[in-house]
Design goal:
With 677 residues, the protein is mainly β. It contains 3 helices and 37 strands. The chain has a 22-stranded antiparallel β-barrel. A 4-stranded mixed β-sheet has the order 4-3-6-5. A two-stranded antiparallel sheet has the order 1-2. The longest helix has 11 residues, at 11-21. The protein is globular, with a radius of gyration of 26 Å. 36% of the residues are buried.
Length: 677
């Protein structure tokens, strides 16, 4: 099992060739109706709550940027450098703000993480690619499954409609509102009131559906739809830490974001070729209002996005040793955003953006962010020992009016039937984050970010389903944004392309597929990630820099009905900026702000956590059912991930009181139950 953190090799194309030769005894779509073994292992991983995407943090090279509830950062890149695709099409977002992914475990078919050096099928990304495949509906009698856990509840139904059509539908809702009471003022770990009152409990929900039509043996049409929403409302009174540091946040606050997408895909299987074409609509909306109730009416940052995607891929087998893959896509994207806020000119190499406060700004604007790309790859089985993939991709960003031509290369040397050496190289780009390039609050003339990935790896299959692999990588990043200070001659530009970065390291994996009732894996990652301010020639650790990460996952089939396992994670403390003093807040008399030392010059203590999970198959009124017992953070480890002043205890610049925040909850048990009928 590769755990899908390596790039897809052209060997996977051979699997498609085999499928083409199978005598048709069932629907062609039935080939993809079951979850892969690798994805199933992630689904059953302790601590992931049955969520294979949440289990990504146990894969080599992946860390939670800034804490366990953060989005993934992969091999030294930023979370915003990643690309997410679902069933060949763009996704809105795939992780809820309060923990889990947006997908029901019953609909996942496969999940691949391309950490670096991926091919010409992906564009507008400089980090990793998260490629999620949802399985096809099964041709079966209608079956419904109900799920109940301490943190969400859901329904999943699936079945055949006609001789050539089948469907499924999933809907889930968070149960977090059951743990909060509206009007309740929250307490900290010591039982002290925080000044934060719950107006609406943190909540989320999601839904997915898919309808498949097997027109004939050569043609399949799929219609799918997906949506999700996250929301919360709170009041921050004068004692709240956030209001003490940033008084404009005092008052009522509302947060919400969500998306809805609909896609139509057509797959055509011919003699030696496969054509996939899709058209999709994606609508996103986000709202953040705060400081409501103040005399000036408060502040807001709202955004809506409409995107139409046209995409196609052709996989053509020229002969037994040559294969061509063509990809093209056009994204028609329009974003409307409005804001009334204080401007903070800042990037992620700054220790605290609240110190870069500017004037109050207000605007409403609509921008077109269309982009398109064309890619072609030639896969050549040069001999029994050598396989190569040479590709090139052209991409154009309308907003920045830039054109890019990027080479992508992959070479595999099969030293033996069990051992393979892999080399990959690729060049990539992505448009800058919106808040750094729009007029008034950004620099529209910023160039896109670029990155170069190089990796070299070795993998070997051993006896009794054992395997191991190691892969080293080196990545460079160019034209990253630098926030300009008022002391610089061109400060009116707000941002410039004067930051560069590099990341390097290796990922080591030992894996055991299921035999003798058990399976598991152990991964060890070493990484270094840095950013350089080119104007000042200063190089510092990046905030996601985590030198060492260890993951151990074990699962054992105890009996026919019982299954159990554990997941242990240990990692170096992430880099942080020490607080060395207290200074007066220049905008608010009697308020205070931190003084910082050298940015990202110190590290938190080693973080570690143990999760366990047990499953028991059972019967519920003669219906198939399952009980799930899970305990996260078994020994209640406090892993510090953030520090700030303890503002409630500071009354002068002489009061240096620092408060530590942990990224993990205390020991959290969970019981789940599912029943199918």
């Amino acid at each position: 099992m590769s755990l899908s953190y390596q790039n897809v090799s052209a060997k996977e194309i051979d699997k498609k060739k085999i499928i083409e030769r199978i005598e048709v005894l069932t629907k062609r779509s039935s080939v993809l109706t079951h979850i892969t073994d690798d994805a199933q292992k992630l689904t059953s991983m302790p601590g992931a709550m049955g969520d294979p995407l949440q289990a990504v943090y146990a894969l080599p090279g992946v860390v939670a940027a800034g804490g366990s509830m953060s989005e993934p950062a992969v091999r030294g890149s930023a979370p915003s450098d990643n690309l997410f695709e679902v069933d060949f099409m763009p996704a809105g977002y795939i992780f809820h703000d309060f923990g889990a992914s947006i997908f029901n475990k019953y609909i996942i078919q496969d999940f691949k993480l391309y950490s670096a050096g991926y091919g010409t099928s992906y564009s507008n990304a400089t980090g990793a690619v998260f490629d999620v495949s949802l399985r096809n509906p099964k041709y079966q009698e209608l079956k419904t499954t109900l799920d109940f856990t301490m943190f969400n509840a859901g329904i999943f139904t699936e079945g055949q409609l006609t001789e050539n059509t089948a469907f499924y539908f999933s809907a889930r809702k968070s149960t977090l509102p059951l743990f909060f009471e509206e009007g309740e003022e929250l307490e900290d770990d010591e039982g002290e009131l925080t000044g934060v009152t719950v107006n609406q409990a943190p909540d989320d929900h999601d839904y997915q559906g898919k309808l498949i039509w097997d027109m004939n043996h050569n043609n399949i049409v799929t219609f799918s739809f997906t949506g999700a929403e996250d929301s919360a409302k709170a009041n921050f009174n004068q004692r709240a830490e956030l209001a003490l540091k940033n008084p404009e946040y005092q008052g009522d606050a509302t947060f919400s974001r969500g998306f809805n997408s609909q896609n139509i895909l057509w797959d055509h299987y011919g003699d030696g070729f496969h054509v996939k074409m899709g058209i999709g609509s994606l609508s996103e909306a986000g709202k953040f209002e705060y400081g409501r109730g103040q005399t000036d009416g408060g502040f807001y940052e709202n955004e809506t996005e409409k995107q139409i995607t046209y995409k196609a891929r052709v996989n053509y087998q020229v002969n037994q040793v040559h294969n061509l893959v063509f990809d093209t896509a056009y994204h028609d994207k329009k974003i409307t955003f409005s804001y009334d806020m204080f401007q903070y000119t800042c990037t992620d190499i700054e220790p605290d953006c609240t110190l870069n406060k500017g004037d109050r700004v207000k605007d409403k604007r609509t921008e077109d962010l269309d982009d398109q790309f064309v890619g072609i790859s030639h896969i050549w089985q040069a001999s029994d020992k050598i396989q190569s993939e040479f590709g090139v991709q052209w991409q154009h960003n309308d907003y920045s009016d830039e054109n890019f031509v990027h080479p992508r290369v992959a070479l595999s040397y099969f030293a033996t039937e069990e051992s393979t050496i892999n080399f990959k190289y690729g060049e990539y780009n992505r448009l800058q984050d919106l808040d750094t390039i729009v007029p008034e609050i950004g620099n529209p003339n910023l160039k896109s970010q670029t990155s170069k990935h190089t990796s070299l790896g070795f993998q070997q299959e051993l006896e009794n389903e054992w395997s191991w692999s190691i892969e080293g990588y080196y990545k460079t990043m160019s034209d990253l944004p630098l926030a300009l200070t008022e002391n610089e001659a061109d400060s009116d530009l707000l941002y410039s392309n004067d930051v560069a970065g590099k990341a390097y390291g290796f990922d080591f994996l030992i894996n055991k597929n299921k035999t003798d009732k058990w399976y598991g894996w152990m991964s060890l990652s070493y990484a270094k990630s840095e950013r350089t301010d080119l104007r000042r020639d200063i190089t510092r650790d990046y905030y996601t820099d985590t030198p060492l990460v260890l993951n151990v996952v074990f699962n054992y089939q105890i009996s026919e009905r019982w299954n159990g396992g554990f997941n242990f994670t240990a990692r170096s403390g992430q880099a942080y900026t020490p607080i060395t003093g207290v200074t007066d807040n220049p905008d608010h008399q009697g308020k205070f702000l931190p003084q910082y030392g050298e940015p990202f010059s110190e590290r938190f203590d080693i973080a570690h956590r143990l999760d366990i999970r047990f499953e028991r198959k059972t019967d519920f009124f003669d219906l198939d059912a399952m009980l799930i017992f899970e305990v996260m953070n078994v020994y209640g480890q406090d892993n510090v991930s953030y520090i700030d002043l303890d503002y409630q205890k500071i009354h002068s610049t002489n009061d240096l009181m620092i408060k530590e925040e942990t990224d993990d909850f205390e020991m959290r048990p969970s019981i789940g139950f599912s029943v199918s009928f």
